[in-house]
Amino acid sequence: MPEATGVRARQREQTRRTLLREGRRLFAEHGYAEVGLSGVVAAAKVTKGALYHHFDGKAALFRAVLEGVQEEVAAAVATAADAEPDPWDRLTAGCRAFLAAATAPDVRRIMLVDGPAVLGWSAWREMDEANSARHLTEALTDLVAAGVLPPRPVEPAAHLLSGAMNEAALWLADRSGPGDLDAVWEALEPMLESLRADRAPGPRSGR
């Protein structure tokens, strides 16, 4: 009996992985609005009952797909950042890794275009903060602790930079030139440099 239970559990997990894989492919190729559950179950070669065993409906399947995409991007950011011993280099490496990962066509469509539209901005932002934005906040916090950034609130800076990079990723995804990432970095790097303690303006004196 335990062996049979284990087999069924593995089969259920395999079905879930297949639904996520095919859902991601269809959402990326056609967009959320053009994908129906009948198409997903046909591509996954399962029944609608099997799909509803794992997900409440199309929106729930999309949310799970989006979570997987965001986790992949966050992992790419963390890997690039963790390879750098210097805290400033960790920040810049993570930012570049985010731009590279987020411009993949399936990532762009699911994470940056359909994600906010389907889930709503607040829910999408909450998921983003749990993944890539969290690494950005941690990097800025480490830089403040190291004295590289002045002791100012980290959260507003993290939100501003995250928004700028999301917009940059959308811009990059609509282009195919080999130098486009370098062009974006030329614009973004001075914004990052302006945060540094040795570059940031001091407090204004009152009159």
From TrEMBL:
Locate the HTH tetR-type domain: which residues?
13-73
DNA-binding among the record's keywords?
A: yes
Look up the domain of life of the source: Bacteria
Keyword check for Transcription regulation, yes or no: yes
Q: Which InterPro entries match?
A: Homeodomain-like_sf (IPR009057), HTH-type_TetR-like_transc_reg (IPR050109), HTH_TetR (IPR001647), Rv0078-like_C (IPR049484), Tet_transcr_reg_TetR-rel_C_sf (IPR036271)
| Positions of the DNA-binding region | 36-55
Keywords assigned by UniProt, alphabetized = DNA-binding, Transcription, Transcription regulation
**Any idea what this protein is called?**
TetR/AcrR family transcriptional regulator
Origin species: Nocardiopsis changdeensis
